[in-house]
Sequence to fold (273 residues):
Amino acid sequence: MRLLDADFAKGFIRMCNDGWEQGWHERNGGNLSYRVKPEEVEMVKEDFTPGDWQPTGIKVPGLAREYFLVTGSGKYFRNVIINPEDSMGMIELDDTGERYRIVWGLADGGRPTSELPTHLMNHEVKKMATGGAYRVIYHAHTPNIIALTFVLPLKDEVFTRELWEMATECPVVFPAGVGVVPWMVPGGREIAIETSRLMKEYDVAIWAHHGIFAAGVDFDSTFGLMHTVEKAAEILVKVLSIQKTKLQTIQPDDFRKLAKEFGVTLPEKFLYE
Ligand code: 2HA
Ligand code: ZN
Fold:
């Protein structure tokens, strides 16, 4: 079948458009990747026209011979829905996990996202950590989280606790917490290494003065995670805009009760007094 008729491609395009409508993807901001299931690759293989092998600039042997649907470098999320063949593409990794080739899309010399190193290294970490369950890596320029990286200490403990306090559902949606990467040059190997180090522990990595990387099993849960984190940040921005201190909030013991009731484990390092 045609790649664009497959459910996974439709889900990918819908997620890009949802992110655009949220206001998270100005110009060519943000990127999305999906590690395609073998049976899905099989379904759309007749639609492939493989290009030349190219270096990824990193080594991800744990992803050798895997296929990924990715947004394109310099492409606009706004255009994915009207021109998917140009805005996104499918790539295949070689036996070593050091080279890729485009097998579908990214028409007329397009290239995969400039953040391909971070996407691939995050996929490798998450594949190992979840027995292959995680398949989606999503990067968005979320304004409220970005705003908070100017006023909160860039510490995992502070961001996690502040976001958890903003909505009762937050610790249930991201019980492991969130990690924070200090400002770094984007698009390369170094920021990929730092981000994937955090992804061993968390599903969310905040890039100071830049945005968020989120990981998940499917499009719904990964988009929902991004949405939940950014909404919590929006509430915190509102609170801090009204006054500097909270009159009341959710207390450490309240979080412990919540954890018990909802069957999640909340690391004690976030429940400081
Ligand atoms: O332009 O978001 O981080 C794509 C990006 C780079
Ligand atoms: Zn970015």
Q: What stands out?
A: The longest strand covers residues 99-105. The chain has eleven helices and nine strands. The radius of gyration is 19 Å.
